[in-house]
Structures
1.
Amino acid sequence: MTRPTVAKVDLDAFAHNYFLARRLHGGQALAVVKANAYGHGAVRCAQHLAGRADGFAVAFLKEAQTLRQAGIDDPILILEGCFDAEELECACELGLWTVVHQESQLVDLEQAAKASERQPINAWLKVNSGMARAGFNPDQVKDAYRRLRACSIAGDIVLMTHFACADEPEKEMTALQIAAFDAAVEGIPGDQSLCNSAGVLSWPNARRDWARPGILLYGAEPLPDKRHGLKPVMTLTGRVFAERTISAGESLGYGATFMAERETRVGLVAIGYADGYPRTAPTGTPVAVDGKVSRIIGRVSMDMLTVDLTNLAGVGVGSQVELWGNQIDVNEVAACAGTISYELLCNVKRVPILYGATALEHFPSYDIDSTESKVSIER
Ligand SMILES: *Cc1c(COP(=O)(O)O)cnc(C)c1O
């Protein structure tokens, strides 16, 4: 018997979300597939959009190399840029695009330009418009642009910035950042890129030539109150593999934190924090048992967790438990666990990923007795 725990990834939903974002934003869009596509499998996700997306973005060189090795020859932008001259050389060879956000990266490009046989590389010049994490300050931008433009190996230059609070529309910060960016790049020619997911969804005047959507591709709304027709991509499920009834006054699990107030039917589910389900998810965090909404009770363990089956008719050993996906919004679980959907999705591990297409009915039903791990099917 194989452990009945799996993350189903709906690649058509992923593509749907990408095209929805591009349509909303206008212009072109790089699908952000860093961190193994936020836990969804970067190679499979990129392969599904290869030749149809305008390009991809990853955090660092190694992630881009993985995609190139898998045969992805679309544009790929390295969001952290190259860490040193050696990485830059490699990026040039692989035909990658790189962010330039600090002096040392400019110097590496200037040095590389002297070695004339290098292929040109498209460079995204990053402006610090207020986030103060990476990027040239507004007063340095014109000079950085002039030096970059003078590098023989710099191809197209795109002007970019990144928002600190795009998912909090009530804050003034994003409007200030847009104004700071526009002032800093005034008179500099070239394409511009400002928007992450929340920017695409809620800041129309930040929509420029290129979008960089990440989390929205995976169907998780970065803005809790808005609904844009995104489709959830990952459905994380386990099954009830044991059940028991505890009496009023009995406690359950580590720390004995849950105390039954009445007779309680407890289902034991084969997933835990070693699989990436957050240990901080408290009693009351929603789950769906055979399609019926219930809750976690007691502490999440390393390899298993416990759910409340009381008053759920017809469920028991063998019932499927959705931790998040089509029925349970990953944002809701994240809120219960005191974090954000990004962290939950990126953390999924040890769980086989099953790739499939839009209607979840099209996934083969997961058979507790016969499923191989690492199943991979596609219509
Ligand atoms: C990760 C990242 C994105 C994508 O952000 P989301 O909030 O997931 O859309 C866009 N731009 C940069 C620079 C990033 O690092």
Note: The first helix runs from residue 11 to 25.
2.
Amino acid sequence: MLLALSLLALAPLLVPPCIARSQETYSESLRLTPLADGKVHSNLSFSMAGPWNDEQQVGKSATAQHHTHLPSALTSLLTHHRISSFHLTLSSGRWSPHWPTTSSPASGIELVAWLEPDEEEDELAEAKRWHEFTGGLGGLFCTGVTQGGNEASRPDWGYSYEGEGAEGETLRPYRLVLPRLSATCTESLTPFLSLLPCSSRAGLGALLNPHRLFDGEWTLLGVHFEQKGGMGEVRLEVGSVQDPVRRDRLAGGLGRRDFSLESLFDRQLTVACPVAETSTVKLVVPRNSVNAFEIQPSDGRVVEKEGELEIVKWETKQGSPTEPLNARISWPTENPFRYPHVSRLPTPPISTRRILLGRGQERGHIGIELINNGAEAAEVLWVEEWPWWVRGFVGSLTAEGASSSEDSQPSVLALDYTPPIPRRRPTTLQALLHLPPRSTSKFLLPYESSYLWYTEYPSDAHRGFEVPGALVILLNPASPSAEEIDVDPSHLLASRGAKLRLHTPSTLLSLPTPDFSMPYNVIILTSTVVALFFGSVCNKLVRAWWVVDLEAREEAEKKEDKKE
Ligand SMILES: *[C@@H]1O[C@H](CO)[C@@H](O)[C@H](O)[C@H]1NC(C)=O
């Protein structure tokens, strides 16, 4: 006991003083956006930044990395597998095209990572490093990132490295996408919360109530890591779209669209996270609202302009500790909320849809439809990643358009195709497309699906197989001075930047499926035949037929009776 106490007293002296310094920052924000169709998008973002690859001397021959806010469970995984940057998103539900966004995540699980190059490492060793990293990440967030035998692809047109520039050229991008119906769930939220400095005990993390979060129309859990100027930044993101109108109707109301922090999350924001540098709650002021609305509370709020949007902002740190901050908006004269006509909902510059046509089960056409709502021609990157059992025939890719002017037709400006290797590499298709103004275009190519091994079918084989959605990127218009002709399409995204990134939802494809009841039919039929055969053979062998003289027998019996 005494020894332990004296050790405790000595402890501060044993730790080198350099470790105590901390330049790490933590900030959190919540942004609420009322949508035109009465729903609410809440976006929670938690960001932790600190010096990266900053080794500190802890002994004569030992160095270590020390972090105060950056979660060590994640940082050790990243340094061990030498990852420069990664994005992991888990999303469930469907993002409506009428909800404003600049980037909608892939449905299901998507992981994009850039591995640091290593000259002593061959392709196989690098693939092994990637596999171990995905396994580690899957374990950390309780998601089946590696499940299902899906392999990674390397689409470089649709993803550009956003960290420090010079090295970006040699980094090795990897992407894995797994369509899953229930990608976000409570199991993933729990480890997610444990990475936050205040967990769910204080600050905005306290609002993360799984009962409400996963009850929404759409849910997202995102983990992002980037390096900039010797600093590493981990950003955790939680997104949710909820429907206050439905909730009000369930509670017996007429269907009002008013909402507050408390009605959305069913938790109160009472304690601020003490280590957070900034902790803000923002509410986007609705535009084009016919009815008057009011935003509360009025003390401590600041109104900001962000482009065309007006935003009301509160600092949670400034809220008095006795009274919880309950930001709310209400439409006092509106009862109930009326859904606007579809034509009055905001339209994005482009919208997209997956097309899957097929006759029979093994052949069909797969592609996308793109609608350019803008008055200018647009250039779009189209990236597809199909599992190996979908084999596309790129030679027969067709571009079909219906536009107001006849001379402007959609076209494919550049194309890159990586054919699949069964069970080892998925199909990757990348294309640069030209869309005429105010037009609807279809890009389709024939495909053939392969037969799988009997053991590769899931237990509900007749449900169909999920094909990941397409990624569509609307590029910013090229500056007129730039020489366009020679630009490699893989650098287009980095040089021009994306105006809009959209993912189509994943689609079900029915593969040629063997008749799984056949073996049982065969077994039953053969057993019947065998039973009939052996039955008659047995009869023949065991039974014999002869004539019995009944009278002779009766006389014999009588004689015996007399003897007795
Ligand atoms: C949520 O907010 C973060 C930071 O403000 C932003 O980077 C991200 O794109 C937002 N997510 C969505 C889906 O709007």
Note: The chain has two domains: 19-344, 350-478+490-509.
